[in-house]
Amino acid sequence: MPKIPIAHWVDVIVEWLSIHWASFFKGLSNLITYVVDIFTWLFMLPHPFLFVIIIALLGYMAGRWTMAFFSAIGFLLIYNLGYWTETMNTLGLVVTAALISIIIGVPLGIWCASSKIAARIITPVLDFMQTMPAFVYLLPAVTFFSLGVVPGVVASVIFAIPPTIRMTHLGITQVSGELIEAADAFGSTGGQRLFKVQLPLALPSVMAGINQTIMLSLSMVVIASMIGAQGIGAVVYRAVGQLKIGEGFEAGLAVVVLAIVLDRLSQSLFNGKRSKKAA
Amino acid sequence: MSILEIKNVSKLFGPNAEQGVKLLEQGWTKEKMAKEKQITVGVNRVNMEINQGEIFVIMGLSGSGKSTLVRMFNRLIEPTSGEILVHGKDLRKMNKEQLRNARRKTISMVFQKFALFPHRTVLENVEYGLEIQKVAKAQRREKAITSLELVGLKGWGDKMPDELSGGMQQRVGLARALANDPEVLLMDEAFSALDPLIRRDMQDELLELQDKMKKTIIFITHDLDEALRIGDRIALMKDGAVVQIGTPEEIMIQPANSYVERFVEDVDLSKVLTAAHVMRRPETITLDRGPRVALELMRERGISNLFVIDRSKKLLGIITAEDAATAVRQQQKLDDILIKDVPYVAPERMLNDLFELVSTAKLPVAVVDERERLTGVIVRGALLGALAGGVENEEVALNA
Predict the structure, then answer these.
(1) What is the ipTM metric for this complex?
(2) B115 lies within 8 A of chain A by CB
(3) CB–CB contact A186 B160 (8 Å)
(4) pLDDT band per the 50, 70, 90 thresholds, residue A276
(5) Judging by beta carbons within 10 Å of its beta carbon (0-12, 13-18, 19+), is residue B89 exposed, middle or buried?
(6) Half-sphere exposure (CA, 13 Å, Cβ side) for A118?
(7) Cβ separation of B131 and A196 shorter than 8 Å?
(8) A57 at the B interface (CB within 8 A)?
(9) Residues 119 to 178 of A: which have CB under 8 A from any B CB?
(10) B98 CB near a chain A CB, below 8 Å?
(11) How far apart are CA A158 and CA A220, in angstroms?
(12) Given an 8 Å threshold on Cβ–Cβ distance, is B74 in contact with A277?
């Protein structure tokens, strides 16, 4: 029995895409670079101390003194260790990836909730995206977007977008049937039902998905650095490659600080809203 | 005048549901359909006409198809066949836009578990129907506040629904439905989730509201007491089909078949029958007669007291035979022995509420209508007789 030439097919498709869709990928690449640059520029704009104060304030607004305190200490540590620029680069990449994931993921989740066929097609694709080893699609990403931050963002989006889609889908389908009936019985259009009833009620679930997406895209930074993305991931990668255990630990610590602060901030972004409403 | 006409409406679930309607017409039973065609009969060729301004109760046990039926009245569930005519226009022939308009302007719904939007304040919930019609904010706010006041929730607008008790939440549900000023109100087991005492209050309030607003209310319930209490007419459903449609009295006194009979046999008659059902024709006299005439009248009829009325039948009081005899001896006028403090009730008063009064009163209890005219008298024996089931006596027929 002859071997099915999957490898060959993939090669052909990738080559065909890279030739005939070159201008599309070029344009997309420029756009992503532009967005990452803007975010990075924005994060580098204030003096690090001012940035620390802003983060601490956000932490305080998000809920607690401890949160503000920990954020300030963490970012001061990063500054002290000398990874400020790298961390801001990474933050730019992560925020861009998360933003793209939300822009694409939430509508896809809504679509899954409204169409069973869409859900049946998209769900296995999501499984595929989450389980296929990242290195496998890192290479074609480089073929399409060349080296640098862009394939890093693309790989992060592929890896990190599923929770947003899944949780949006779940959140909307979990809205109770009686509320949908109520919305319909008063003569809502499909759009009114979605924006006035389903999405607001799905919000906790959607926010949990977005939080997961942010965390997952952060976990991609080291892998992204292998294809030339600047940032704290590159420091980790270099240090490990050169067996500089201590330096690797320092850079890893910066990733952890970033992760925890992003996690708590994105979580309380929603919780803060809810507690305000209840009050 | 009928506002809603249901003609031959069926709802079947399963493969070839359309074909199933024909089989039903050929006389297939529900069981046979399920067994041989895998078709579940939800609603089986229902016909009814609902009149403007009445409270029409659809009652049946769970699984009788009443909730499915009412959801076809605003097409939350699509009927398999039949016509649903609102003001003569078939709801099933409407396109999406027309249907939306009917839902916005003509038919509103109140749900069993309230179905309030938990992310909106009470006021925002009430506003919802107007908001999606793009009514200007100030205007819809005003209407919503009026609607809340109507259900007795003035000042609760800024609360979230989960801060309210069940009864209050359903008031919000009612206010939300009323804010659109619909002609027809569909209430799907609206009070079933409430405590019995609160349920009763809500029933009373609904009747009170209905007095003011004159909506057409279609009320779904599985509780016969509730149906008898609030319904102008009742449709009894079983296995998706209507068994009997009639006024509460008709259903109680002339059950259409043994199913209805069994259904109503446990009902406490005292909660269905009213003073008007058991009252007797009163013996009366006008004030310008003398005590001698009164005494003679009582002797003739074999009774010991007489109601005194004026020319327009207005109740003035009562005189007893004893007093009359004394008056004859002492040459008094009727006016001098008139007892003005007569126990009386309204004709709509339920028997249930009469017992205490009748058993403790030393004088016969008068039945007086809203214009203070004497229409009947409650005699202890007749009251007990009615409860024993013997309501079909001539005098009831005369007075009813």
Answers:
(1) 0.77
(2) yes
(3) no
(4) very low
(5) middle
(6) 12
(7) yes
(8) no
(9) 176, 178
(10) no
(11) 10
(12) no
Cα(B135)–Cα(B309) distance, rounded to whole angstroms? 57
* Contact call for residues B104 and B41 (beta carbons, < 8 A): no
Binary contact (B109, A192; C-beta < 8 A): no
Residues of A in contact with B129 (CB under 8 A): 186-187
The answer to whether residue B54 scores a pLDDT higher than 50 is yes
Task: Quote the pTM value.
Answer: 0.74
Determine how many CB atoms are found less than 10 A away from the CB of residue B11: 24
- Candidates B101, B112, B116; nearest CB to A187: B101
Contacts of A203 in chain B (CB under 8 A): 119
Give the one of B99, B103, B113 whose C-beta lies nearest to A186's C-beta. B103
Q: What is the pLDDT of residues A68-118, one digit of tens each?
A: 888 899 999 999 999 999 999 999 999 999 999 999 999 999 999 989 999
Q: Is B181 on the interface with A (CB under 8 A)?
A: no
- Which residues on chain A are in Cβ contact (under 8 Å) with B112? 178
- CA B169 to chain centroid, in Å, comes to 22
Residue B243 belongs to what H/E stretch? Answer: strand B241-246
Does A189 contact B132 at a Cβ distance shorter than 8 Å? yes
Alpha helices in A146-244 (DSSP H): 149-173, 177-185, 190-193, 199-218, 221-225, 232-241
Across the interface, whether the CB atoms of A201 and B160 are under 8 A apart is answered no
Q: What are phi and psi of B270, to 5 degrees?
A: -65, -15
CATH numbers and ranges of domains, chain B: 2-106+182-267 (3.40.50.300), 275-399 (3.10.580.10)
Name all domains of chain A by residue range, CATH numbers in brackets.
6-45+82-278 (1.10.3720.10)
Give helix then strand counts, H and E, for chain B.
18, 16
* Residue of B91, B107, B125, B128 to mutate, interface with A, max A Cβ within 10 Å: B128
CA gap B259, B257 in Å, rounded: 5
Candidate from B99, B113, B128 with C-beta closest to A186: B128
Partner residues linked to B344 by β-bridges: B366
The predicted structure's pLDDT at residue A271: 63
- Bridge partners of B245, per DSSP, are B235
Contacts of B334 (CB under 8 A, 6+ apart): B285, B287, B289, B290, B291, B294, B308, B319, B327
Backbone angles phi, psi at B147, to 5 degrees: -65, -40
Residues B19 and B80 sit within 8 Å (Cβ to Cβ): no
The residue count of chain A comes to 279
pLDDT of residue A274 exceeding 60, the answer is no
**Tokens found for residue B365:** 């209890």
